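Schema walk-through. Below, the input block comes first and the output block second. Nothing else is stored per chain. Lengths vary across the set, and this one has 124 residues.
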Amino acid sequence: MAKNPIELVTGSLKDKKQWRVYRARIKQLPASYRATVGAIEKYLWNFGETPTEWPRAAAMLDGLADLFERAATDGTPIRDIVGDDPADFAETFARSYSDGGWIAKARARLVQAVDDAAREDGDS
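--- output ---
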């Protein structure tokens, strides 16, 4: 089925709606929880193993919003959520949703390139 011509230029309108719903959920969090989620997002987009396909990324973001909404409702301190190493928390959290991200794909390309070169060179 052909895509909506507007979506060919702007991307999926459904995906954009999911993103807006997620952002609205985060906006409703208390300031300290909202800041923590923002910092986790920034870390994951820059350094983490985030999913490369939108459905997995959307599930990860929904999971993050669920976690922090429950914590805010229960009054759970932020350090009880993320622990002493927020980077480790973020990476572990993302890994449960990840398809390996760009790092895994880059590693796979490297391995394939070396394997191909070794075969051309007569190595096994």
